[in-house]
Amino acid sequence: DPFSSLERFPDMSSPFTLAVSSEMVFLDLPPVERVRRIHALGFQVEIWDWTKHDIAALAATGATFSSMTGYTTGRLADEAGAEELLRTAAASIPVAKDLGIPRLNLHGTGLGDRGLPVQPCETVTGAMWLKARDTLSRIADLGERHGVTFMLENLNLPLDHPGTPFGRAEDTLALVSSVDRPAHLGLNLDLYHAQIGEGNLIELCRRALPWIAEIQVADEIGRAHV
């Protein structure tokens, strides 16, 4: 089991608040049991699509949740997609409140079951950049009204998420820094994706630091080890 290290070293100390994605470990267990196991090991818990979970059962575990996906459908860069994104982001906030989740994750567009964009986009135009920035500014307004932080996650395009607009860390950093409201719109800086797509992680972290809300790590390539 590549995640057995979580059980071998349950008392490890760290200067960081550590969380484990319940979507990626202990996959032989039901979702609620994964959450209980992670919580028992002393970690916070990340979940993805909240519509696929029993929220009351998750709350009853007593676990501390670090983040979850903060929308169900929608896109950043066109009018209809933006309205859908804002609608489903608003619908996600009460769930986050029920679980005590402070950070809600976003992507450049909706992703299907295999992590592929629902509407692939090979070319991002200037107008799309402007619309995406406007959408994220409205998302930051939503976060401010409800006391949560939305995060824009970078994804790798060559391997796992081809055709995702605004997927590179350079793209997410450009958008989030241009809105510049880190209390309510931050970066979910995924170093697994950044290493595959761009590399130079130390310099990336230095430049992104003022806007980082969360950092994700996994073994590259394949996420096979913690």
Explain how this protein is built.
The chain has helices at 5-8, 31-40, 55-60, 79-99, 126-146, 169-179, 191-197, 201-208, and strands spanning 19-21, 44-46, 65-69, 103-106, 149-153, 185-190, 212-216. It is of the alpha/beta class and 226 residues long. The chain is 39% helix and 14% strand.
- The general outline is globular
Mean pLDDT: 92
Kindly report the spatial arrangement of strands forming the biggest sheet. Answer: 1-2-3-4-5-6-7
H/E topology pattern: HEHEHEHEHEHEHHE
Structural topology:
Blueprint: H1 5-8, E1 19-21, H2 31-40, E2 44-46, H3 55-60, E3 65-69, H4 79-99, E4 103-106, H5 126-146, E5 149-153, H6 169-179, E6 185-190, H7 191-197, H8 201-208, E7 212-216
Parallel strand pairs: 1-2, 2-3, 3-4, 4-5, 5-6, 6-7
Summarize the structure.
This protein has 226 residues and is of the alpha/beta class. It is built from eight helices and seven strands; from the N terminus they run H-E-H-E-H-E-H-E-H-E-H-E-H-H-E.
